[in-house]
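Internal QA ticket QA-208
Title: Verify multi-chain structure generation after dependency bump
Assignee: T.L.

Test input:
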Amino acid sequence: MSKKIIAGNWKQNGNIKSSIKLAQDIILGIKKNNIKHEVIIFPPSIYLLSIKNINKKEIINIGSQNVSAYNDGALTGEISATMLKDSKIQYCLVGHSERRHILDENNLSLCEKVSRLRENNIKVIYCIGETLKEYKTKRTKYILNKQLQSLFKSLNNSKRSNKAIIAYEPVWAIGTGLIPSAKELSNTFGYIHNTVKRYNESNESIKLLYGGSVSPENAQSLMKTQYVSGLLIGGASLIAKKFIDICSTI
Ligand code: PEP
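Actual output:
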């Protein structure tokens, strides 16, 4: 059986001291609780290498929250996929709702990012999800289809075999304490599974994660949803005990 994936997105939080302490506590918690899942943390870029340094035994995987859509060159403030590869960063998030909706990223630039990452053998966690307005007007499937269609245009064009992971995160569930009902989740993941099957031209298996207000209390039931192979966690990944409790309960 393949490993479950537990990913923690730290967003723009913490400082050097607290980030190292959080990573150390997570590593300790994994060892102490004998956790066998694939655990990935996404610290702010400036702390990636310091955290890599305390993870020499590779107990956790480390990912970047963002990457440039372009190759190396005159792009002030950007970090390229080549630089991530050079720093031995294994994963990168693409398409998180905060980047789509606050920082105005669109499907086109997100697909460029996916291409740069795959060219550099960095695994992609691609986030999709509908806003509250789209949810309320019953446009969830329409939005997910559009997001998946553009992702697969990019994946199918690249000859690389580097498994992508898709995280379904309803935007209205992120940081709000709200989660879809079990029935809604089963319906939506069924739809995502079938849509991925329709668009995916390769033999790559694509794992699906759920994200949005995951807590130690709801993690187990969320993981019971068919086709869900893991969780993407925001707020609860900033507290080592909560994050480890989630890892332990599933
Ligand atoms: C996220 O931002 O990816 C996320 C899922 O956040 P939270 O767990 O805080 O809802």
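Spot checks passed. The first helix runs from residue 16 to 32.
Status: verified.
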